[in-house]
Amino acid sequence: MMEALTRLLHPLRPAVAEGRIPLGEWISAIVDWLLAHAQWLFDVIVWVIDGLTTSLEILLLAPPAWLLAMVIVALAAWRVNWRFALFALAALALVLGLELWRDTLSTLALVLAATVVSLVIGVPIGIWAARSDRVWNGVRPVLDFMQTMPAFVYLIPAVMFFSTGKVPGTIATIIFAMPPAVRLTNLGIRQVSREMVEAGLAFGCTPKQLLFKVQIPAALPSIMAGVNQNIMLALSMVVIASMIGAGGLGDVVLRGIQRLDVGLGFEGGIGVVVLAIILDRITQSFGQRRRAGLPERLRELFGITRDNPNGNKSAGNP
C-alpha cells in the first residue's frame, strides 16, 4: 500500500519543492491511477450508457416520421392544450422540412438517456437528503461545485475515461444536469406540511408508506420541476457535448461554427429550441393540475356523469 502511494506521489515532488499546491498534478495522478486499476468499472459504465442511448435512438427512429410526430402532437394536445398541439405540429413540420429529423431524434435520445440516469441517481439522493440534515449538509457543497464548474471542464475527464462519442457526451450531460433533480426533490419533500405527515402517521402508515403514499405525491410538483430543469440543462449541453463526438443537433451547430456558416448554425439552433419548447411544456404539465380536456367538457356540456350516464340534465329534478 505504501509503495503504491509512493509511486502515486512521486510526480508531485517537484511542485512541492517549488512551494506551490500541486492540485493539477494530484488530479492527473488520480486519473492515471483510475485508468490503470478501474478500467473494468469504466467498461461497465460504457456498456450501460451506450446500450441505453442506442436503444432509445433505435426506438425513436423505428416508426415513420409522420407517425412519431402525430404521437407527439397528440401528447401535447392531451397534456397541454390544442393550441400548443398546433404549434408542436408546425414546429415538427419545420424540423422535417429542414431535414433535421434524424439529428433531432439523436439529440432527444441523448437527452432522455441522460435524464433517466440523472433521475435514477438524483431523486433517491434528494429523498435521502430530505430525511437527514447531515446528508443534506454533505450533499449541498457537492451540488454547488457541480453547478458552478464550467461545463467544458466535464468534457476532459469524460474523454480521458471514455474516449470520444455519445457515451462521454451523455456522461458529461448527466453530471451537469443532475443537481436540480436532487435539490428540488429535497425541497419538495421538506415542504410537505407537518399536518399531512402527522395525519399519515395517525392512520398507521409505516415509514415506507408515508414516503410513497404521502410525501412523494405531495412533493410531486417540485419533483417534476426538477425533471423539467434536468431536461433543460441536458439540452443546454447538446452543443458542448458535440465537441467530443456526441452528434445530433449539436453537431449541426458545431459545423456551422467551424465553417462560419450562420445559416447552418441557425438551423441547428432552431431544432434545439423546438425540442426544448416541446419538452418544457409537456414536462411542466405533469407537475400541474390538468384542466378538463375536450371529452370532459363535452360530458359537462351534455350533463353526462357517472350517476347520470344517459346525459339527461333534468334527471333528479321534480
TrEMBL record:
Annotated SUPFAM superfamilies: MetI-like
Transmembrane segments: 56-78, 84-101, 108-131, 151-177, 231-250, 262-282
Keywords attached to this entry: Cell membrane, Membrane, Transmembrane, Transmembrane helix, Transport
Occurrences of domain ABC transmembrane type-1 (ranges): 104-283
CDD domains: TM_PBP2
Keyword Transmembrane helix included in the entry's annotation: yes
GO terms under cellular component: ATP-binding cassette (ABC) transporter complex
The organism of origin for this protein: Thiohalophilus thiocyanatoxydans
GO molecular function per UniProt: amine transmembrane transporter activity; carnitine transmembrane transporter activity
Main location: membrane
Keyword Hydrolase: no
Identification of the protein by name: Glycine betaine/proline transport system permease protein
InterPro entries in UniProt: MetI-like, MetI-like_sf
